[in-house]
Amino acid sequence: MTSQKKVLYLFDVDGTLTKPRQKITEEFRRFILDEVKSKVDVGLVSGSDYMKISEQMGGEDVVSNFNYVFSENGLVHHKNGKKLSSESIVNHLGEQKLQEVINFAMGYMSNIKLPVKRGNFIEFRSSMLNICPVGRSCNQIERDQFSEYDSKHKVRQQFVEALQSKFKDSGLKFALGGQISIDVFPIGWDKTYCLNHIASENFVEIHFFGDKTDPGGNDHEIYNDSRTVGHRVSSPNDTEMQVKKCLNVE
Asked: Is 169 annotated for ligand binding?
């Protein structure tokens, strides 16, 4: 494959290019931005906001080297380091409905018993809410502890089911986000939204690499979309291996 064929490799961040909420390794960053980008266009799509993505990629000067950065599922759109567009969940839902979701989530979380709880349980982003039962202020050890507890007790899955039941006619989607949280956004504002921004770019192929591809995960829709070639990965090392296989490089 060569860049002349208009091919895009689109990457999730957490669990795909980096370990959850950690920085990409220098070696892997060089591989993506030097070797891979010399052959195809490269982009990022994440539920996180632009600043969090920048931190994980090693700074804004690094992330601006990606051809495309689709933060908040693509509702915020950067191309070659320049912000081109953004959407607002407040304008879409209205303040009343937004507060109903927030109030319900806060009440639900107040009754959850976990190994630890910290702070920043609901993070407002321009295009979504990010709800975190353990609290985004947790450290890495506490994050890993919650992830292990959640995999056994299905805390987030039960929370999603409660949200779906309460707001079944709201037009909202509730998806497991990353390692510790739940993303809340209008139906259609999943990661497939980013594909709207590149519909006129005439890519012959769009390859998507992500780890949360099962139903309920925030990579599920774009992984299964007919416009993409989906690659399910299990770690940054697995991503590198699969990319090398696609590009026929050692």
From this structure: no
